[in-house]
Amino acid sequence: MTTTRFAPSPTGRLHVGNIRTALHNWMLARQAGGTFILRIDDTDAERSREDYVEAIRADLAWLGLDFDREERQSARLDRYEAAFAALHAAGRIYPCYESAQELEVKRKIALGRGLPSIYDRAALKLTDAERAAKEAEGIAPHWRFLLDHAEPITWDDGIRGTQKFDPAQLSDPVIRRADGSWLYMMPSAVDDIDMGVTQVLRGEDHVSNTAVQIQIFTALFAANFAAHESAAKSLPAFAHEALLVGREGKLSKRLGSLGCDVFRERGIEPEAIIALLARLGTSQPVEPIADRSALVAGFDLGTFGRAPAKFDEEDLERLNAAIVHQLPFATVQDRLPQGMDEAGWHAIRPNLAHVGEAADWWRLVTGPITHPAFSDEDRAFLGEAAAALVWGEDPWGTLTATLKQTTGRKGKPLFLPLRQALTGLDHGPDMGEFLPLIGESEARTRLQVAAGA
Ligand code: GLU
What we know:
By secondary structure, this protein is mainly α.
């Protein structure tokens, strides 16, 4: 049974990078008929905000990414306490007393020597007496997880292939602050175990976290922490996606500010975002596929490339227009101007880049319109058109066929003055579909007005 999760921290709005991670995890779960969990990573009480939690839910709803379960880290502190106790008992957690400044000095020294800044485990060498002295001074410890240096950490990444880390090249991560609060590293592994997560798919900025977390998972399994029924019994499958970059190929600030609000305001359809993000960075072509079940069916981590995926807002606009042209009436109905029916939507939709523009086009139907000035010759022609108009199955086809015969006009001189007289524009909706929308008497009036009659 596949279980995936999307684990945002509610410290801001979702941006396009988060949306992509959410989508891919949702797709993995839906493809397998599995479970998709929304996990709110809110252990950072100071930076987490309830309005962001609500915005995350609202954004996922707007995107149509439904989740089967919602979990919150702030409601699971007892489990983290239990995991901490288990790891501590197993000798995998140790107290540290360095201040932020001391650590910063160590970091600068390493940097100055051209060495990677890896925590030197000085706290591990403290004697009981030295620790007691620190605590007597009133220094509360923060806690690190003791990495096992014995063997390399390896996994078969669903996107990056075989990954290998030398744990000695990693710092023992701080997992708990001196005030008792939790950092991301351990709670995430605890949750993945408790919630039976089978696949962890996230950005490649988490690759080295995965190396550390594999050791945390393994230590928790060894400590019998995962004994309960719903717990994962083995490591999840990991996959890390290349990051999303802007059109110029750089990690851009702009992407961080692009979220559902901006998209919605611009008239971008959720389906356009889904169609783009589902395949961006994969070897599958980005296409205006409005049916997301087709995207889900074809989703395959094996098609993901290692190069950063370029997010281009112009691509999104193009895709949006192509998606709008396919949207069924029922999907857009409540966003259309009053009176616009299914036939109206079908006539007008091919002209729209955004659904919101339907109102402008609908005004062509309801009128009034302003037509351009016509030559005497065209006025006479339009007068003839007003007289020749008959209302049947296909009024436009009949009208143009008749006028072609009676006036000898064809091509542009035949069609353009009619279009201009009936819509006020040189280009626009398919006239065959548009004319019935105006109705017979309005159409005749427009032709007569244009003819100057
Ligand atoms: N809260 C973490 C983040 O937003 C979750 C990472 C993960 O998927 O484990 O980066």
